[in-house]
User: What shape does this take?
Amino acid sequence: MKLYNTMSRSVEEFVPIVPGQVSMYCCGPTVYNYAHIGNLRTYIFEDVLKRTLERAGYSVKHVMNITDVGHLTGDGDDGEDKMEKSARETGKSVWDIAAFYTKAFFRDEEALNIIRPDIVCKATDHIQDMINLIKRLEEGGHTYTAGGNVYFSIDSISDYGKLARLNIEDLKSGARIEIDSNKKNPKDFVLWFTNSKFAGQAMTWDSPWGRGYPGWHIECSAMSMKYLGEHFDIHCGGIDAIPVHHTNEIAQSEAATGKTWVNYWCHGEFLLMGNAKMSKSSGGFVTLPDLEKKGYDALDYRYFCLTGHYRSQLRFSFEALDAAKTAREGLCDRIVGYKKESAPSENPSEEARAYMKAFDDAMFSDLGAPQALSVLWKMVKDASLSAADKLAAAYYMDDVLGLRLRDAEASRSDVVGSEDDLKLLQERTEAKKAKDFKRADEIRDELKKRGYNVKDTPSGAILEKIV
Ligand code: AMP
Ligand code: ZN
Assistant: This one.
């Protein structure tokens, strides 16, 4: 399997540390608001990566954090804690805010058929692990205390900024006007805030440096190392994490252990709204429930994301989402049709297997989901394949795509037809019961005009879209 590694800026052959196993850490949501569909694009990419690794035969240990403290509104340790801000604006407690938006996040993930990570860890449950890591950095001479806060000194290591390829000379010049005058180098960052800064913070803990709370970056280092060890395979996130968050995670992790921390850095590109990155701060963001309220299935959005490569920007529009919806529903209709004809083949033909291999080849080549989707479509349109073969191949591909094709019937059959169409269908059933076959036939013709065939099944009559 080949994967693009942000660290080397090239596509590399993936080789895990332990043969057959993959350790993967993904930065999770900051639970101060609903996730927007841009955030969700990143989690869909990570889910597809995990499913593809499993297809390649690896057993994957997937860890994701929940940021419920310490993520400030500014990337330079400025602003205020996003959780505190949300609490102040809504009049709720930070704990209630965290619980509410964590629940909403997993509801979205479930609707998008994102497999829950093996370990989901909350920052507030791991404060002691963070304190221990900061102590280790302190012992190694990588920290200093100023104005009550503990800072990481980037000048204490030789390769700060290697992931983002930051120019160290520029960093040292200090040309940037720094808001926090405690910092020796403008790129130094906070490991532990005490109440000397952001007084009134609701979430605080005792520490060797005073009562306070951790910086955002330290949580990912502490929790990933706790669950995956000091050296693991893959670290993921959105590309906006490269210059500060992931850069600082690497600096402190490798300073603490003295060795390479992560082998592959995988980043998903942005979802755009118009010409700009979709973001919470810009106000105009769209959530999954917004789409669902408009009549889209969450999986229409998942399909839409699969139409773009994860390392390319993807522009959101309702026209594009409509196209994804039509394509996904068309796929489901076909699956429903094959299911009526046959069960999936237990021993797919050579032709079907060739499609399955072409699909895997596309996915193993740095997650070529758009190419993999076109293999799927070519396969279903291939008249030489049996329904049994098509079902077997489609299900095989869907284990990676995650479009719930196996459930296609259940999710589609009961939604065919408007309320009015279904009323008419009911009228036909009653006419038949009353042996008024003339009326029953009239209704059948009327429904045909509306684009439906009437099908009598053991559990009653249903409508089928004429395709
Ligand atoms: P947050 O909850 O703000 O920490 O963000 C969660 C994840 O979404 C991070 O991995 C971000 O990099 C990612 N992200 C933020 N905005 C976008 C966007 N417009 N498109 C794709 N991913 C994004
Ligand atoms: Zn992180």
